[in-house]
Amino acid sequence: PLEMSSKKPVPFLRQVVSVRKKVNRDPRFDDLSGEYKPEIFMKTYSFLDSIKKQEKEMIQKQIKKCKNTEQKEKLQQLLNRMTQQEQAQKKQQKLREREMSLKRQRRELAKQGKKPFFLKKSDKQKLELAEKYTELKRSGKLESFLSKKRKRNAIKDKRHLPSQKN
């Protein structure tokens, strides 16, 4: 039996055999789950894209049928969220592909015996911006984008000016 101090009162329910506490582990931060590789993840769960597409179509049909304005608004918000998630996923995929192509180029240069060159964050952003502008120009939305940007900047400039009092 376990020796206990006579100074403390003996607990009513004594633990005779120590029970190992169950440890909850989060697979996102645990090494046992392996390393996260987005390419493998995308390949493994690519079937979810088709399911999401079906759900999106179903929601669109429900919006057309629905007569209740509150319900229609909720469905519209859900549809907007789904489209935004889809766009964000495409953007992420583009970024990943760009990074992979840069890595391939670096490897090729290294094989040729040249020193690897790494772009600064600002240079990467400039390249991304240039690509965005070419994409907008190709789709014909460049002018509207630039006019909106000008308006936004004008509003910001007005805010920083001292207020005029009559």
Task: Please work out how many helical segments DSSP would assign.
Answer: 5
Order of helices and strands: HHHHH
Largest sheet: none
Classification by helices and strands:
mainly alpha
Residue stretches low in confidence (pLDDT < 50, at least 5 long) are none
| N/C terminus separation | 91 Å
Strand percentage lies at under 5%
Portion of residues within helices:
55-70%
How many beta-strand segments? 0
Integer average pLDDT: 89
Principal-axes geometry comes out as: extended
Architecture overview:
The chain has 166 residues and is mainly alpha-helical. It has a domain at 34-96. 64% of the residues lie in helices and 0% in strands. The model has no long low-confidence stretch (mean pLDDT 89). The protein has helices spanning 38-44, 47-65, 69-111, 121-139, 142-160. The protein contains five helices and no strands.
